[in-house]
Design a protein that fits this description.
alpha/beta, Rossmann fold, four-stranded mixed β-sheet, 9 helices, 25% strand, PRTase-like, Phosphoribosyltransferase domain-containing protein, PRTase_dom
């Protein structure tokens, strides 16, 4: 089975049992591209004068690449395969006695991933949501529970940090597994430090670096490209993915 040669229709027939080994970065990116969930800036088009648009991230940084989990994980079989890959990495990182007893996915991108991982581990699934754009804990937190917080993609850990803080606000004695499992670590970080809680090691299915910059130093802005938030609306995603065609 060569995942790199599979069409979208073929990918949608795969089951968790068909992917028992660790996926490579190239395979994960191929799945994302095939599903229409990965955009990358076209520098060749820019050289021809079509500078198009580029991504403004949750962290405030600007970037030349963007993955969107809502599209990647829309199909249940792909989502469960990705979730099982995350479970593989978690088991590799933790000793048997250190396994989580509770899990929660950073909303909204990782909510269902958290549910999948909870079922695969047979542990409690906590709930989180958003109120006026702010992440909040929406289920009781047992101070004895060892909570694993998972997210979809990591650039600077902004959403992960907000989720941990929300849980701590709801339960100051909350205990956390010191890892941040993600599908793709696109920002190059190794550790996220959450003030008042401690360090979390990023535990990705794969690493796939995309460039990012502070807005005032963004070379794409200097070229005249316009920054937009890719997943804010369906229209934004269509706009950024077609802006250099």
């Amino acid at each position: 089975m060569n995942i790199l040669e599979m069409t979208e229709r073929e990918l949608l027939t795969l089951g968790v049992e068909d992917v028992s080994r660790s996926l490579t970065p190239e395979e994960v990116v191929h799945i994302a591209k095939t599903r229409g969930a990965f955009w990358v800036y076209n520098y060749e088009a820019a050289k021809q004068g079509n500078v198009g648009m580029h991504a403004s991230l949750k962290s405030g940084l600007h970037s030349d690449g963007f993955f969107i989990s809502r599209i990647l994980l829309a199909s249940e079989n792909i989502r469960r395969i990705i979730s099982s890959q995350m479970v593989m990495r978690i088991k590799e990182a933790l000793c048997e006695n250190d396994m989580p007893s509770g899990v929660v996915g950073v909303p909204d991108g990782a909510t269902k991933i958290g549910e999948d991982i909870g079922k695969m581990f047979g542990i409690n699934v906590l709930k989180m949501g958003k109120i006026e754009g702010q992440i909040v804990s929406s289920s009781p937190v047992d101070p004895q529970e060892r909570i694993l917080v998972v997210e979809d993609f990591c650039t600077r850990g902004t959403g992960f940090t907000e989720a941990v803080r929300a849980i701590k606000a709801a339960q100051p004695k909350a205990q956390f597994i010191p890892y941040d499992p993600v599908i793709i670590n696109r920002g190059g970080l190794k550790i996220i430090f959450v003030e008042g809680t401690g360090e979390f090691k990023i535990c990705p299915v794969v690493e796939w670096r995309v460039q990012d910059w502070d807005p005032e130093k963004c070379p794409l802005c200097k070229m005249g490209s316009v920054a937009i938030k890719p997943k804010a609306t369906d229209e934004n995603w269509k706009a950024i993915t077609t802006s250099q065609l």
